Amino acid sequence: MVTSEDDKLPRILVVDDSRMVRASIVKLIRGRFEVREEPDGEAGWEALLVDPAIDLVLTDIGMPRLDGYGLLERIRASRVSRVRDLPVVIISGDEDESARERALALGANGFVAKGAGSVELLATLSSLVRLSKAQHELERSRAALASQSPVDPETGLASAGYLQHRATQGVSEARRRHTDIAALVIEVDQFDELVDRHGAHVVQLILRKLSKMLTSRIRTEDTLSQHSASQFALLSPGIDRVSSCAFALRLRSSVEKLVMGYREERIRVTLSIGVANAAVDGRNTVSELLGLALERAAAARAAGGNRVVADAGEVDAALIERELGRLVSIDNALRQVRAGARAEVEAQLPEIIAALMPLLELLESKTHCGLPLRQLEALKHRSATDGDDAEATRTSI
After folding, report:
1. In terms of Cα–Cα distance, which of 227, 228, 230 is closest to 190?
2. Any idea what the Cα angle at residue 272 is, between residues 271 and 276, rounded to 5°?
3. Contact (CB, 8 A) for 89 and 108
4. Separation CA 346–CA 235 (nearest Å)
5. Residues 6+ apart with CB under 8 A from 154
6. I want to staple 60 with a disulfide (CB 3.0 to 4.6 A). Which of 16, 33, 183, 389 is the partner?
7. β-pairing, 11-15 with 265-267?
8. Within the chain, where are the H helices?
């Protein structure tokens, strides 16, 4: 016989250090609920982490190792939404109003006195389980709707589904037009520590601030999405490696200097950014391009954070200057050749060859005209090696 999800009995975790109390509760709710028993708050917490079938927690207050208040606090502070959102009912022999107020203040959904009849207990548990299931259904509906919508209702940014759609289009167009497309993964450093120190609410405000900053700095044709709790993903069509790295570096620097204030607190954050470009990295699919940017963001974080990592490793201002210098040298070289200054151009040939090589390779692949690519590549490397030896000599002097 096949049992559907709707036919399964709701599973309740009963946490109480008294075996007799647990047996009494099981007797009262048997047939309406499936029960898992644990003798104290610590064991109850461990059960929650490994048992995703639990629909509600019914816990005593006074217990060894971890009491009911401590268990409730852990549940509401959990980063796992499945655990954090569970209904929790306190069952206690303490009729003190202050105990009830404290439990409700910590996030309890109900408070039932020991000795209460089966009608009251069953009514409380049944209503909370129904409410929890209705909320989960609503969340699933919202998630399904968000996956089809271009805008995430929570962040106001592009939804994950729309980012994938735009990325697929962008990669295809870049391949067809022989242009480039950049993917950036922007991660907030020490995210868990920020949550622990300032709380989830404050960190959400920080993410909102960063989201607005990012949105104000990107173009209309760019697509920004919140990739995970601590990460943003940015897709930029028509952007080459140097431009995407330069943008990432400016963004990292701007956030590093930013000081956010919240209730007399001064909060600073830094970013780890991974950059991938389809043309340079040879990635032809969305998943490969975003995956590479994600790996490089992780490498930046592992190196200490507050870094930008691209295909050649960590990006800094000096690297951008060198790359920009190579691009500008071609324009200068053309002007110098026209002016007859051939000797000055010959000194720049290694950089010029390196900058033009992708274009020459493309021309050869389309025309098959016999361009001496191997000889040019060898000349580029030989000249570069000579330059390195000369540099090493000058340094030693």
Report:
1. 230
2. 130
3. yes
4. 39
5. 146
6. 16
7. unpaired
8. 19-29, 41-50, 68-77, 81-84, 97-105, 118-148, 160-177, 191-198, 200-217, 241-257, 278-281, 286-302, 317-339, 342-346, 349-367, 373-396
Q: Where in the chain is the domain with CATH 3.40.50.2300?
A: 5-145
- How far, CA to CA in Å, does 270 sit from each of 40, 186, 297? 41, 10, 12
Residue intervals in the chain for CATH 3.30.70.270: 153-315
| Architecture of the domain made up of 153-315 | 2-Layer Sandwich (3.30)
How confident is the model over 62-114, as pLDDT tens digits?
998 899 999 999 999 888 878 888 999 998 876 678 888 888 888 888 888 77
In sequence order, the 6+-apart residues with CB closer than 8 A to the CB of 354 are 326, 380, 384
pTM of this structure: 0.51
Superfamily of domain 5-145: Response regulator (3.40.50.2300)
Query: What tens digit of pLDDT does each residue of 266-283 get?
Result: 899 999 999 998 877 877
**Taking a C-beta distance cutoff of 8 angstroms, is the pair 24, 36 a contact?**
no
